[in-house]
Amino acid sequence: MRALLGVPLPGHRPSDNGGSGNGQDDAWVNDDGDVLSVHYFGLPPDLPTGLDDGPALRSTLTHRTAQAGGGLIEASVKRLGELPALRQILKLPLPRRTTGQAFIGSYTVPRAGCSTVVEVQAPERGMTGRREAVILAEVGPDRYYRPHPYAPDVQGGLPFHAADHARWDEKFPDHPLSRVRRTLDALAQMVTLKPAFAARAPFAGPAAHDAGV
Which residue among 3, 5, 75, 206 is the one 20 to 30 A from 188 at the CA level? Predict the structure, then answer.
């Protein structure tokens, strides 16, 4: 099912790597090399809680991301089209590289037995770490590294720090994290849901699914 309409944003063209067979329906790329993709999954959403349990949802997602070697930057519930969606931004180490990160932003729209996801991936290219170095020098180490606001006890993964805050995006407009946030904001303005998908029963959480609700 193609559940989302209006995803191909201006400046994006079809990617040669679309249609990977793992739930990906379409993919596009822009001149920065950022990949925008849409996925449909005909399975119950792999979310730890319903979208109405914000603290538990964010804490579990923070731990999951750290266990995968990354770091959760943001997680919140926003509207995509007329339905609530989980908006996430996370960072992962670049594979086969000793430096650099990839930033991934997504909206997940869960329904009782399926979900659709729109995602943007923006890897660092060339010289990396300039944003972090500049902000560390500006705010100082005591204010740079912070306990994770969603899960202060989280261990491992990439650290939570001041350089990932949205307040710095204007100063670093070409940074991949800044581009990811702009793309997510544009998607929120342009994407609509197909009526057949929107009409499906809402996702009430894994416990409700396991009980057959």
Answer: 206
